[in-house]
Amino acid sequence: MSASKTLLGLLATAPAHGYTLKQRYDRRFSPVKPLPAGQVYASLSRFERDGLATVTGTEDGGGPSRILYAITPDGVTAWESWMYTPEPPSTYATSTLLTKVTLALMSGRDADAVLDAQRVLHVERMRELTAAKGSAAAPDVLAMTYELAHLDADLRWIEEAGGRIDALGDELTRDWA
Q: pTM to 2 decimals?
């Protein structure tokens, strides 16, 4: 995900200070791994330099001045171009789980144990999300159903891989030798 394009999109909803953008980003898009504040301010500087955002005012308070940024028409165009350009499906080779299973098979270790441990975590997370959906706000339900769909796809892959583990191990060991 492009953090800078996401920040630009948040500016498209309303002008904001860097601190406010960081809070909105972290709450909606990255509650587990907050965006570094430096990345927010570096993005805002680039937006201003590139004509994608402009400073519309400052507020003095008990600390440093807070600079208010607003998206420009060029910023809206750049953001919408990014938003409406489909993302290519990510390649299977970037999956950490696939890497772990492959290495376990190649090294003669227990790949089933890798799959079993992952299955347990996926099922636990699916239960948490399913329970939380009942009382969640609509935007959160959207994110939860997205995550549930991905977890379900991973579980289907885990089951398929588990059924083929012996044959895969033999083939990988032969190819590696």
A: 0.66
CA–CA distance, 153 with 166 (Å, rounded to integer):
22
SS3 call for 64: coil
Range of the domain at 168: 92-176
Helix (H, G, I), strand (E, B) or coil at 69: strand
d(CA 28, CA 48): 24
Query: How far is the C-alpha of 166 from the C-alpha of 109, rounded, in Å?
Result: 12
Q: Quick: pLDDT tens for 22-64.
A: 998 898 888 778 899 999 999 999 999 999 999 999 887 777 7
Residue 174 has pLDDT above 90, yes or no: no
Cα separation of 23 and 37, whole Å?
A: 10
Domain count for the chain, please give it: 2
Is there a contact between 116 and 104 (Cβ–Cβ < 8 Å)? no
Regarding whether 159 and 102 lie in a shared domain, the answer is yes
The whole-angstrom distance between residue 100's C-alpha and the CA centroid of its chain comes to: 21
